[in-house]
Design goal:
Length: about 500
């Protein structure tokens, strides 16, 4: 019975958990909120892992909500790619939930419920089988992120939030226009139905459909921080509290996922006159995103800004994989997506710990008092830096090697230089950051602040996840290769017209 309803559990658990955390008696006790929030996050991770195991063993799992079947009903589609990203989201949620329990939740109200609602929006975006509900889940995650960004208050957070809200409201308006155009030309917003109808669209509707598809490219580009729509990211991520920024690390990946799902699957090779409509734009924009990200990395003055700019570089690298649009490139991009999200989240959490121990200097690259625990924080910073640069033995090296291999032989001249230069820039700036934060010190630390056990646990969860990506790299690359093929092949309506919880047999 539980297995039949597995696809809806990653949505129900954070939804019901967030509501429970708003109600007495949980809402009246910080201690109860912390334990309950961590238990809910752990349950979400268990459900995601169980779903991943089921999907890998039995194929894509389809769930018609309320047994209303597509193209008019709401359908959840859990294929390998969606299931893997659900595990990633749940892992991040567990880590930031535990980290927040060490005192971050006392700087403002409703942190734990808001983390749950943000996870609900992210997980729904990965699970939905139609573009309208993709819009709905985008709005859920954005509304939660508006409140999370100003957690704890302050002028800097308010200013960053105003820009962030205005930009995303504009993006939401464009998304609605695109949905109207797509529905007007195709008569459906179901992804499987769209994929079937794309190749047979009447010639009179092709130009209108192209306009809708390009509007979606703008919207997803804005969500993923693609050039020139990336300028919101560094300021927003720098202003956010450490655990919030760590969870935000996956928000740009929702945009990347949407590009894969819509422009490489629906408007992929089999879409007739609409085939690969985004590719001529993706190539230069992805390349320039990496280049501009590298320049921003070299100009970074704080650890949080540096991490945010490294996210832009990783986004550009992933967009290059989207532009190649093949199974090998998608699989390589998926591995790197998982790695880069965990590594960035780890560095944001470390930035929060370093800020707490450096006083007024915070994480700026200036001479300041020493941190209280240089061995612990310096060791963790070294591990996170290796991961972000892409050096062995951590998973960043495997991810970048897979992307370089995927570019062979046709695109190597375009792909290799930006990816390798991105690693070089990360090496230079993280070396400078480490030497400044831990070696260029003066005076004594007369206000010793130590890392709390919950914060250590949260950080080690992410470190162990990076190690796991290396240990199970062989199985994961095979899994991601199959996930890429599933995504590129897509589903047809007959596969969706199954009873609730039905499996698409392979």
């Amino acid at each position: 019975m539980i297995l039949q309803h597995l696809p809806v559990l990653p949505l129900l658990i954070p939804l019901l958990g967030g509501i429970l955390l708003l109600l007495p008696p949980l809402a009246d006790s910080d201690r109860a909120q912390r334990w309950a929030g961590s238990a809910i996050a752990l349950a979400a991770l268990a459900a995601a892992l169980l779903l991943l195991w089921q999907v890998d063993a039995r194929g894509t799992l389809v769930y018609a909500v309320g047994e209303w079947h597509p193209p008019f009903g709401i359908v959840l589609v859990a294929d390998r790619m969606a299931a893997l990203l659900l595990v990633l989201t749940s892992l991040l949620l567990l880590s930031v939930q535990v980290f927040s329990s060490a005192g971050e939740d006392q700087k403002g109200r409703f942190l734990h419920p808001l983390l749950m609602f943000q996870a609900l929006g992210i997980q729904g975006s990965f699970l939905t089988g139609d573009i309208f509900n993709l819009f709905v889940f985008f709005e859920i995650l954005l509304i939660a992120s508006y409140a999370l960004l100003i957690h704890g208050g302050g002028k800097q957070k308010t200013q960053a939030n105003v820009h962030y809200v205005i930009l995303n409201l504009a993006g939401s308006a464009l998304f609605l226009f695109a949905l109207g155009i797509i529905y007007g030309t195709f008569g459906t917003l179901n992804m499987a139905d769209l994929q079937q109808k794309a190749a047979h669209l009447p010639a009179t509707d092709v130009q209108l459909a192209k306009a809708g598809a390009m509007l979606l490219l703008v919207v997803f580009g804005m969500k993923s921080a693609m050039l020139p729509l990336h300028f919101w990211l560094p300021r927003a991520y720098e202003a956010a509290p450490a655990p919030v920024a760590a969870l935000f690390a996956i928000m740009t990946k929702v945009g990347i996922y949407s590009l894969w799902r819509v422009h490489n699957s629906i408007f992929g090779e089999g879409a007739g006159e609409l085939a690969n409509i985004a590719q001529p734009w993706l190539w230069p924009l992805a390349w320039l995103t990496v280049v501009v990200g590298i320049v921003a990395v070299l100009a970074s003055q704080t650890l949080r800004t540096l991490t945010a700019n490294l996210i832009i570089v990783s986004v550009g690298s992933l967009l290059l994989m989207v532009a190649i649009n093949g199974a090998d490139a998608t699989a390589a991009g998926l591995y790197y997506l998982v790695h880069s999200t965990i590594a960035a989240a780890l560095m944001f959490l470390l930035a929060g710990l370093i800020i707490a121990q450096r006083g007024k200097a915070e994480d700026r690259f200036v001479q300041a008092r020493p941190v209280t625990q240089p061995v612990l924080l310096g060791g963790l910073f070294f591990i996170a830096s290796l991961a972000l640069i892409g050096m062995p033995p951590l998973s960043g090296f495997i991810g970048k090697a897979l992307m370089l291999k995927a570019a062979l032989p046709d695109s190597a001249g375009w792909i290799w230089p930006p990816i390798l230069l991105g690693s070089l820039a990360a090496l230079l700036m993280l070396s400078r950051a480490g030497s400044t934060l831990f070696w260029r010190v003066r005076g004594d630390n007369d206000e010793p602040v130590r890392v709390q056990p919950a914060q250590q646990l949260a950080v080690w969860i992410l470190v162990l996840a990076l190690v796991a990506l290396v240990i199970w790299a062989g199985w994961l690359t095979s899994f991601m290769q199959q996930a890429a093929l599933d995504m590129l092949n897509g589903l047809d309506l007959q596969q969706l017209l199954l009873p609730a919880g039905g499996y698409h047999a392979e």
